[in-house]
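Reply to dn_fold:

You asked what the input looked like. This is it:
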Amino acid sequence: MLINAVDEQQSEQKPVTEGALDRFAIHELLQNWVLWRDAGDWARFATVWHDDGRMHATWFQASAAEFIAGCRKGFDQGIIGLHSLGGASVDVQGIRAVAHSKMQIVQRGDIDGIEVDVTCLGRFIDALEKRDGRWGIVHRQPVYEMDRMTPVHPAKVPELDQELLTSFPVGYRHLAYLQAKVGFAVYNNLPGTRGPEIEALNVRMGQWLEGAGAECLVS
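and this is what came back:
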């Protein structure tokens, strides 16, 4: 009786849909982005992008190829920047998709001779497309929601320039402060949890899903 019940239950299971397979492939791609980027596996890291892909971040807004080259340069110079992912939600519409994934960025650096770690929490929002059977990122925009700075040695605390610190948005001001101190030119108009920047980004991602050209993704 038990065997028959199991057989009947298995026979009633629905086949895996193409949409489910697409979402699985995108989830795997999101994980690979983090693992291959932080490990310096540049050849495989390049495969998560399409050739016309773009990356927007605090320190960089340009093509995926230029972003990979910049990451590689920093990696070779010993800059420490690590990423981890939490949950993800993927909307698929035909050959287009938009993915939201919870993320954490940790960057280590030096402020006036004192070593610190900055932790930033937020989301990656990705516009993706399936071309020749392969999903790839067309546009990635981090959303910066909350950050903090921690001295590596608890007895050594840097004295921060409050005017510089508060010139950056609250969601990533400590990350931007550190990056500015080590020589990066930092953008100060990136999306956070609330406000016109995230509202405009959501509109652009909706347009992408509906079939608009990639130019809609650039603010």
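The CA atoms of residues 127 and 205 lie 7 Å apart.
Hope that clears it up.
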